[in-house]
Automatic annotation (TrEMBL):
Coiled-coil regions listed: none
Residues of the PRD domain: 63-169, 170-282
Protein name, entry field: Transcription antiterminator
Keywords assigned: Repeat
Signal sequence range: none
SUPFAM superfamilies: PTS-regulatory domain, PRD, SacY-like RNA-binding domain
Annotated GO biological process: regulation of DNA-templated transcription
Species in which this protein is naturally found: Limosilactobacillus gastricus PS3
Highest classification ranks of the organism: Bacteria, Bacillati, Bacillota, Bacilli, Lactobacillales
Length: 282
């Protein structure tokens, strides 16, 4: 790879043998280089194809400090090891930008109170939240920034978003808010507290997330529609779950303008029945 220009000592524009331009990041990767000089590949910690990135993304990539790059690389490895998930270039830069801003904000004495949201996040996404808390300890240990425990909530959203193809962090936060609203409806309707550690609760959350991602990305489920007679049997057999799903349908319509298809109603009725029937047997 040959040097084209410097953004700073730690970020440079380079060109490969096929004349494709890349933004490369690494400590001292562009220091003292002139156009046409060979780049030390060992110094490159992350690379992004310049033509594929938006201007705001490029700005983030070129302004990252070596400290942040090292921290994000460690967090990325942690997530891959613990959750078996990988970051796209955009997701990597989004996380880097968040961590960088969180550190700057904390050093300026500005902390966000996320105690209530923290409990909800832990309940909805326990695996991701556990890794987020570990990542927070790693960030504080490497930087001495003293980030508040509430930052684990935002890190959780980033980690959840790795499995949400075509959605943004804002979408993931919206999904979390909607799922909380639906959980509240179910618990109120049945006058119970759902067990967040149960298998049925995990399946229920997974179903809701998948449905919401399809709605946000305008995706459709392939396959034949359910038989109408089956729908009628299910609605007759589970009247309480039907009433609960009716409330959920109104909630989704009011909040997002979404309409439940007949098939989606049936699957949601079954999930509501499973998650509440298990609770009532305890």
């Amino acid at each position: 790879m040959k040097f084209v220009k410097n953004f700073n000592n730690n970020a440079a524009l380079v060109e490969d043998d096929q004349q494709t331009e890349w933004i490369v990041i690494g400590k001292g990767v562009g220091f003292g280089k002139h156009r046409g000089d060979e780049i030390d590949l060992a110094k490159i910690e992350r690379r992004f194809k310049a033509a594929d990135q938006e201007e705001t993304v490029l700005n983030t990539a070129t302004q990252l400090s070596p400290e942040i790059v090292e921290v994000v690389n460690r967090v990325e490895k942690l997530v891959k090891d613990q959750l078996s998930r990988s970051f796209t270039d955009y997701q990597y830069l989004s996380l880097a930008d968040h961590i960088d801003f969180a550190i700057k904000r904390t050093r300026d004495g500005i902390n966000l109170d996320s105690a209530t949201v923290s409990w909800e996040t832990n309940r909805l996404f326990p695996k991701e939240y556990a890794v987020a808390k570990e990542a927070l300890m790693l960030i504080n240990g490497m930087t001495g920034a003293g980030l508040d425990e509430g930052e684990a909530v935002m890190l959780t959203q980033h980690f959840v978003n790795l499995e949400s193809n075509g959605t943004t962090i804002q979408d993931t936060m919206k999904i979390s808010r909607l799922i909380k609203g639906i959980i509240d409806i179910v618990q109120y309707q049945y006058q119970i507290q759902l067990d967040p550690d149960s298998f049925n609760f995990t399946r229920f959350i997974g179903h809701l997330r998948a449905f919401m991602i399809r709605q946000l990305t305008n995706s459709k489920v392939n396959g034949q529609a359910l038989d109408q007679s089956l729908m009628m049997v299910i609605q007759e057999k589970y009247p309480d779950a039907v009433a609960c799903v009716d409330r959920i349908a109104v909630f989704l319509k009011n909040q997002m303008g979404w309409d439940l298809s007949p098939d989606e109603r049936v699957f949601l009725i079954l999930h509501v029945w499973r998650v509440t029937n298990y609770q009532e047997e305890q």
